[in-house]
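Hi all, posting the design record for the shared folder.

TITLE: backbone redesign
STEP: 1 of 1
STRUCTURE INPUT:
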């Protein structure tokens, strides 16, 4: 009787440990065998860095700035609406990115599949992704910034108002400090000229 209870308790304990095993492995940053690639955003990586550390991730965003080559490898910053992360990739792969985001351009949209590092020991403790696969989902394009005439008119009007206020203050200050101007009457200081 006692052996059946102990056998049943052991089986339950093993089932509990087995059910938490993959979760425990993910928390420590180890991938369970056959683990799937997790689609993540920059916010997911920042807020869940400990959970994602060392796991395979898929991250989509815009290539921004420029590729920074380091021998046969390169850094490319990739950003989404929540932030940006540095991606370590082959220099030949980085060279295939045609448009990088700036004020005048929307960069190529990339999907990066690789290993996420919360504090990469190879790169001075920086948060990064070591790319295994880089796909260009959409080519970048020029971004037109049309002139907003209403804002321009407001800016000109405010500039003129500020300039006028400055001139009036300077004129008032000059009158106050100029001994020959103002409301002083000759002889009002108690002395009469003769």
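Okay, here is what came back for every position:
SEQUENCE:
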């Amino acid at each position: 009787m006692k052996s059946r209870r102990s056998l049943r308790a052991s089986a339950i304990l093993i089932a509990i440990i087995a059910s938490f095993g993959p979760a425990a492995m993910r928390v420590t940053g180890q991938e369970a065998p056959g683990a799937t690639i997790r689609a993540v955003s920059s916010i997911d990586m920042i807020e869940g860095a400990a959970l994602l550390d060392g796991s395979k991730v898929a991250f989509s965003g815009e290539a921004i700035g420029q590729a920074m080559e380091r021998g046969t490898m390169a850094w490319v910053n990739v950003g989404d609406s929540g932030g940006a992360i540095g991606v370590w990739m082959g220099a030949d792969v980085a060279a295939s990115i045609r448009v990088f985001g700036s004020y005048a351009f929307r960069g190529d949209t990339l999907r990066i599949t690789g290993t996420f590092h919360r504090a990469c020991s190879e790169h001075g403790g920086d948060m990064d992704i070591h790319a295994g696969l880089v796909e260009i989902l959409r080519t970048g394009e020029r971004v037109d910034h049309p002139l907003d005439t209403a804002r321009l008119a407001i800016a000109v009007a405010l500039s003129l108002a500020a300039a006028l206020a400055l001139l009036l203050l300077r004129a008032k200050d000059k009158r106050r400090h100029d001994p020959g101007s103002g409301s002083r009457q000759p002889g009002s200081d108690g002395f009469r000229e003769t």
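COMMENT: The first helix runs from residue 2 to 27.
Let me know if anyone wants the other runs.
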